[in-house]
């Protein structure tokens, strides 16, 4: 199949130019921007819109359905990504304006370029090309695009609404693929694939203390704010214990050949045997530490509104990421145990980690074989995502345990970890490869 990378670039640029920014306050969501993006998709991908049924779910979610010809015995394939982007941040720090979709220095610049409009663009372009060739799926194909992934769903998680719609229709999925992952090229020239088979849970806990307040000229020995600050120190000094999960073992052992530190690489070759030593080494590195435990990060605090008033109520908030297998109740019990009784604990919001997915499935093997075909000899590393994605809402619709976060993108040091930062950008030359991955997937799935 012939690919026109300029066309892919044009599609992505136009999508970036529509500022579909998330807002934690649903009343402030710019629904019109989302509707504009819907209209643009319709204009850019006429064949997809001819073949697939499109429904608007919630205020701006999109569910596309294509009932296949039924020849395949496999359950449906679903692709997900999100229409919303995080706020652009400080405009003056952007090299090119955040909603310009500027093409410069070999990149397309702008908010959403990598997270995750490039996925929507790639799914759509792949399918549009296939339809032009006469493709008809033997399986049912779904696309689901939410509008509030970046605020963890907020009060009306779009992905949940889409999943509920499918559930009402008794749809079961054979495989769901969401954003994140792909091929990684390191600065040392190593190359491997990352496929996320699980992700951590999420929770915000508030810890507060109320007392009498009063004049700060005659203070008590402790203010409510002093007490919650002590609580913050206790939280930091008493993290949840490290746990060796099956997913972490798989990930560490597969990563061993790529670890430059000789000693660490040696330990990772047999994770279970070397667990004690690994554990203390990993705890020192934030990225490794997050792989082996539920994390607690104290991120917000508040006390009195004025310097000369003792706070009547003071609070801190900790953001937590839960390891698969642990629950909000476990975390609550841990906090109850380590904190003094007079500190009030409140779960502001949170969700338990979704189920860990299997690597012994039809879909996993298919993805592996496409990767092997494109990059012979490449290692695919089943990994845990420390952040969260919309895919978690769909796990219980997928009896085959085949919910993966994987893309056809080749990530390399040029990207500079740009997601959610200013100067988000995507190298122009990776789009074609991304589309090619989905062309192969849509063609081969169900066979
Ligand atoms: Zn994202």
Automatic annotation (TrEMBL):
Gene3D superfamilies tied to this protein: 1.10.150.900, 3.30.70.360, Zn peptidases (3.40.630.10)
Keywords, comma-separated and alphabetical: Hydrolase, Metal-binding, Protease, Zinc
Organism domain of life: Bacteria
Family membership noted in the UniProt record: Belongs to the peptidase M20A family.
Zinc-finger as UniProt keyword: no
Descriptive protein name: M20/M25/M40 family metallo-hydrolase
Alphabetized InterPro entries for the sequence: ArgE/DapE_CS (IPR001261), Bact_exopeptidase_dim_dom (IPR036264), Pept_M20A (IPR047177), Peptidase_M20 (IPR002933), Peptidase_M20_dimer (IPR011650)
Chain ranges of the Peptidase M20 dimerisation domain: 200-340
Keyword Hydrolase: yes
GO molecular function: carboxypeptidase activity; metal ion binding
Taxon lineage: Bacteria, Bacillati, Bacillota, Clostridia, Lachnospirales
Gene Ontology biological process terms in this record: proteolysis involved in protein catabolic process
